[in-house]
Amino acid sequence: MVDVVVTDVNDNRPVLQHSVYDTEITENVEPGAYRPALLTVRASDADDGANALVRYRLSTRSRAEYGQVFDVDEQTGDVKLLQSVDYETLPRGGVVVLVVLVVVVLVVVMVLVVVMVLVVVVMVVLVLVVVVIVLVMVVVMVLVVVVVSWCWW
């Protein structure tokens, strides 16, 4: 059984084709017998363009417990067997629960963050320019008042 947790940072969350993926593995069979993959996790994202690209990976816990036995192809979601399985060495009576995370490619998000930072910097510069202009206007007004009052006397 593969328990899938979906995470996303965009407007739409990735949607899995199935909530649970289930397969059986024969003990002591070489990984090549399960080519191209044990199973394939599939998710789609309704976002547009690059925001719709999803990547797959084992959760930190699944990688720590089973990373030597299983792997997930980042781009295709193929869950692969890396070595033969010995029933006696598996916890929970031979039941393996892998958590496969589906994440959206963050490159676009990083670009958006950089753009947002640049926009904030430009806004701060514009505010500083406005402050300088206001200060110059105040100084000019004070000078005009001083000159007019001096001439008036």
What features would you describe in this structure?
With 153 residues, the chain is of the alpha+beta class. Helices cover 35% and strands 21% of the residues. It contains two helices and nine strands, in the order ββββββαβββα. The protein has a four-stranded mixed sheet. A three-stranded antiparallel sheet has the order 4-8-7, with no helix packed on it. Strands 2-5 form a two-stranded antiparallel sheet. The protein starts with a strand and ends with a helix. The model has no long low-confidence stretch (mean pLDDT 80).
Identify the strand order in the major beta sheet. 3-1-9-6
Count, helices:
2
List how many beta strands DSSP finds: 9
What is the helical fraction, as a range of percent?
Answer: 25-40%
Determine the N-to-C terminus distance: 95 Å
Rg, Å, rounded: 30 Å
